[in-house]
């Protein structure tokens, strides 16, 4: 029955692929990706991976799994297979994945100089002594000697045997993302050795070849052996390119692994956000691989369109459609394509809320799929919801932004009678305007998906252009009211560094994001002042620069938009601002604003400077639009409203991911559900 429903154009996506001794049931492949749970959160890990297998993915892999204590990534929580005691808990993941007919894969890794080994207090390892790539720990990675190399090969073999014992079908050798000792050996900038493991290309690729052969010998003919390899390192500090050494590695080892999992390094380019990269952006770097090897190839590109997936296969770019973020946003993407339910797909918006959680050592989350990371802890399923305790109950949602739409959708799926009203002429709340700003159009999928779902549901009434008063809400006589009325950008400069309004904030040439979002733009020399630390100030700065303003971006932070380090965007934010001529000033506060000028102060020294400015845009924080909620609290206390809560930015301004989670939580907990 399902096959009849599937569009024949997508039949190719459901063909099996032979990977060494194992065969996939289709071409959908969840590549290894961090979820920041680790060995101490095994129930969460099991539930997360199981859900992807349940959703129809042919292969589900777990993330970078440490093969030795010297590869410790603390405080980032990674799985481990360097001890036999790890086999049993890890095998629980394998069993859960296989329960739904998927193959299970594991990415065995040694972080080399990128891992500080802080938890086990070991010395990090490197081909040549150097400081760790990503951490400020005051310890240098030491140069490994011949005994270390022999030990390293033994660690990999032993971990591979443990992986086989745990039941994995595909076992990885990891050489990507600048998180691998093997990758450091390949790069002439990190490998300065003069022995048989350094110097000429044949020597630098030696350890990767030996490791792959060791792992194949260790696991025999029952498991496939894959290599995850970055064919190009996009950082300026690397010499690996797809035209030269990256290609030479694939040519030299073409038929050694059973599978090539290829990408680019490092993470800000491999998992680049939608603000800076389109779907399938890695193709120009990886398109040579299938021309060089006879083994199957998997790669990623934030693929959400089945047409784009089919194109990758038919044009000979990939054999398997790899996904991390699309599988986070919609674990059931393969099943939905198979069943012809394309409108039900929650497309990844590429905001990288997921990577931000991993970067901060917190379990993974997703803007589009608020159930991600909550499968065990909250008991949430991305598709299945508990039935309504009483389907005749009426719920009124006031506010049609991300939180309100998610609450309405969850409650309607459960079977309640839902009405949702918004004062605006379009659904989306904050995203009505934000999606029209530079580089943010893809974020509109948050709205489009939920509105599309609600419009097909017979138990939902939707009202635009409806500014409700407390009396209106009380007169609705709903069994439950959810207020999702959003937040407003402040205009007084109060933020992280200012507890009091900035002198001069009330002047007519001082703006805030509300003005810019409404299309009211200043002109001339403009200072955009950032104490928000996420995307808004840099988006505003770009909008004004492209409108002809001479823009200076000023922030109290030590880096521009510091939260974007976690969303993997900071390097791209800085590059884009430099390209369009925005001056960047960090570590600086605004002291006062007056006609034609701004006085700033360096935070470290207190030194003040007068800067010319025809206009100033203050991006310092938001305040909840909660007046209606507090009026309704009084109505509830008077017995005029039965039940009331607030969600999203009305509860507390934050990321869109927080808003959708608030909405999901409200929808799941109504009716007495404790979780």
Automatic annotation (TrEMBL):
**Entry keyword annotation includes Flavoprotein:** yes
**Superkingdom to which the source organism belongs:** Bacteria
Q: What residue ranges carry the coiled-coil annotation?
A: none
The segment(s) forming the TMADH/DMDH/HD second alpha/beta domain are 512-599
Q: Which Pfam families match?
A: NAD_binding_8, Oxidored_FMN, OYE-like_second_a-b
Recall the GO molecular function terms of this protein's record.
Answer: FMN binding; iron-sulfur cluster binding; metal ion binding; oxidoreductase activity
Q: Please provide the record's keywords in A-Z order.
A: Flavoprotein, FMN, Iron, Iron-sulfur, Metal-binding, Oxidoreductase
Q: Which SUPFAM superfamilies match?
A: FAD/NAD(P)-binding domain, FMN-linked oxidoreductases
InterPro entries xrefs: Aldolase_TIM, FAD/NAD-bd_sf, NADH:flavin_oxidoreductase, OxRdtase_FMN_N, TMADH/DMDH/HD_second_a-b
* PANTHER family on file: 2,4-DIENOYL-COA REDUCTASE, 2,4-DIENOYL-COA REDUCTASE [(2E)-ENOYL-COA-PRODUCING]
Q: Name the family.
A: In the N-terminal section; belongs to the NADH:flavin oxidoreductase/NADH oxidase family.
Q: What is this protein called?
A: 6-hydroxypseudooxynicotine oxidase
The upper taxonomy is: Bacteria, Pseudomonadati, Pseudomonadota, Alphaproteobacteria, Sphingomonadales
